[in-house]
Design brief:
4-stranded parallel β-sheet, homotrimer, 322 residues, 37% helix, 13% strand, 2 domains
């Protein structure tokens, strides 16, 4: 395997930049570490002292209250000091470079950067810079790039599947929707393969599939009813608002008719199939409310597990565990 | 009494949505609980561990730094973890419904929502949804609706009156100003009646009085000098900037002349009458600076008591008390 | 010496409004207090309980994420509760005066205001008001006025010089750049004189020098090569973007040619001279990247010392020390 800036010399997690290229042992380690953190959240006092006195910087170059909040919750439950920086309107607009900003925060004794940036290169650039300047004690977590993908989303999806289905090696998983514009989808496919899922299906209209989809080791379906038949796990993708009109799609009603998950289509999957969605949902576009709020949906547990997974990543990065 | 979503089966506070309909015992319980919290604020270390490890979400659908800060102070002095969410520009703009946002935050183990929304229905809707989904351990506090009213304001007013005047049952209280556009006024009238105040007066120009004012059990005065004669408590209302010109009022100078509280008018009240104002004040419009900064004003103590009252509400809701 | 609102009757720091007029003993006391705080930042748990339960308000009337963050870090490392208030869009826009806002926050038991305002008068006004109303237990720190100067910047500069050079009384220090628009420069000159630096030089084009510069007890140079000869310390000033074009300067390229610090010009200073910059840097305008990232630059240590100095100021103001 090529140089992986995410792992240190001992093969342990140094940064979390992407789920791609993470070996099975590291993925499993993260999921195992997350498990006890799900219990913390149900205690009377939802706090552990693992990151006490550590400084976590939410470095958001684009606004995302939802994502920022999940990381802020995870960090505060680990007793870290959290600093929220919305940078679009600040230093960089004064002509300071991204790396000067990072250098300054390092000089303020940052321990971790949670980075959200319109360009997926930004977290890598920061990680590279930290390595080049010998600051191995500072860690980077990618909280999403311009396409609203982020590896902790992929990890919480894997946690959710393992929680409900146990053994990955016997599952058929279908990913449904706008694969073309979703890095989550690509990350999920990699993670599912790495964890041993034997059959991954992709269900989407031709206009929302990348050309190289056939090289990804997935079965491609353009008919949702065919694709859902007999699956254990359905992972819905969010349809970005900006895709809903224009050249790629006729209309959101039309999309719902063919690719929206309804109870009638869900009935084609295994009876105990679970339904996942990364949120926020477009009810009536990619998913029907009856399914979103139904007994097979595990969409809210995904959110709960997401906090635990982020706590796991943060504690692993700083060498602390519960 | 009809179903009151604010009280649980034992008649204890479940949510704080409005001061209206709260029984005297509950009102008194809140005021009693607040008393020791006023002393916390004067300690060297202004913190109590009552909400340690609890997650309080300031869910602000409209911006109000002032109000948000009072709740943030109260929550942090109780050692809660506080998360500030300005939602106008976030998830809901991605097409997520209010209740999906709430569901997500519940899945992140929220313990309390402090809700500010342009529509007064929002906190009720959230409370209903929590009840319908069996999440009785999560509490809602209304931090103000579109007319900038909020029940903790009413409660701190009652605390202030009790602090300075003791027995409610011997008082004459005058509410002065824009009753028409003020939900605070309505809440105050209800609370004053519930707590046993025998005479509540309303002083306002006809254009700033609701048509149903006569049904509220108050004495109406259009002449401020008449209305203030012999009162124990003067509760000034804030004149919203947007009312100052236009059809309802001739001008702010004119308003001040007839309904602005000056020392000369204040002299008509009892010598030991107290002057209250919810802030922020329009000096020279509804109140003269000499009165606002004078010896009978208790406007700053109101702010201090407001922190204690919010601490009391939060600790009662979560079942902790000092 | 005239009345100094920054010092109490015992000559101790009551507020930090400006570095000008602070006696040598007070400056030295701050620097001495900061020293142990630089070590806190390298501990596993970067926290001290000195301000536990204290309420620090970042009162920012103009936005500055960078500056706000440095004070937030300092306060949180001292275990204070920190409240960030961006006021431009809040209470004052509702017609409340600055002092009413301050009175309200005092009533919420504020212990310290960190004030950033476009007008340098604002922190003084607040300090005066606190004195006039007998609230000596509440402290004000000036976090910068409209020209982006702030005394903690001057103090961290002095800390940095002392750290690297020890004895102030043998140094030649050059301040380079836009002295005209920089209050930092004026503060630095005062502090350097107070601390006993025998030779302070100012290097700038004539258009960027104040007319009264000759009264400041400095040696003025318009030729950078002459001015840098034999100096121990080079303090670069930031060239504000808005100065780069227009009547005062021909162009940023031209400025760099004559007043940008390059390795070739740096070679004229003493071999062990240090290079300082308050950040954010305009690389290629006032400083060359090779110098900014070179072995003589102490620009990032300045940032680190800045946190320690702010911790020192906050702990001295509240009467706590490490």
């Amino acid at each position: 395997m090529a140089y992986n800036p995410q792992l240190n010399r001992n093969g342990e997690l140094q940064h979390l930049l992407t789920i791609e290229g993470l070996p099975r042992a590291v993925l499993t380690r993260i999921l195992d570490t997350a498990a006890p953190f799900t219990e913390v959240a149900e205690r009377e006092v939802k706090k552990l002292p693992l990151l006490r006195g550590k400084s976590v910087f939410n470095l958001f170059f684009e606004n995302s209250t939802r994502t920022r909040t999940t990381f802020e919750i995870a960090a505060k439950r680990l007793s870290a000091d959290v600093f929220n920086l919305n940078i679009s309107t600040s230093s960089t607009s004064k002509g300071e470079t991204l790396l000067d900003t990072v250098d300054n925060l390092c000089a303020m004794q940052a321990d971790m950067f949670v980075v959200r940036h319109a360009s997926s290169g930004a977290p890598y650039l920061i990680a590279q810079h930290l390595a080049a300047t010998g600051r191995d004690h500072i860690h980077v977590v990618n909280a999403g790039d311009g396409r609203h993908a982020h590896p902790t989303q992929g990890l919480l999806d894997m946690y959710t599947i393992r929680h409900y289905k146990g053994d990955f090696t016997k599952l058929t998983v279908a990913i449904v929707g706008d694969v073309l514009h979703s890095r989550v989808a690509r990350s999920q496919i990699h993670a599912l393969h790495t964890l041993g899922v034997p059959e991954v299906r992709v269900i989407a209209p031709k206009t929302l599939l990348p050309v190289e989809v056939s090289k990804m080791g997935v079965h491609v379906f353009h008919d949702m009813r065919e694709g859902l038949r007999g699956v254990d796990v359905i992972m819905m993708l969010r349809l970005q608002n900006e895709r809903m009109s224009g050249a790629l799609l006729p209309s959101s009603q039309e999309y719902f008719k063919y690719f929206g998950l309804t109870q009638e289509k869900l009935a084609l999957a295994k009876p105990d199939a679970i339904v996942m969605h990364p949120g926020p949902m477009n009810r009536g576009v990619e998913i029907d409310s009856a399914v979103a709020d139904g007994g097979q949906a595990v969409i809210l547990p995904q959110v709960t597990f997401g906090i635990a997974v982020r706590m796991a990543v943060m504690s692993l990065l700083t060498g602390q565990s519960a």
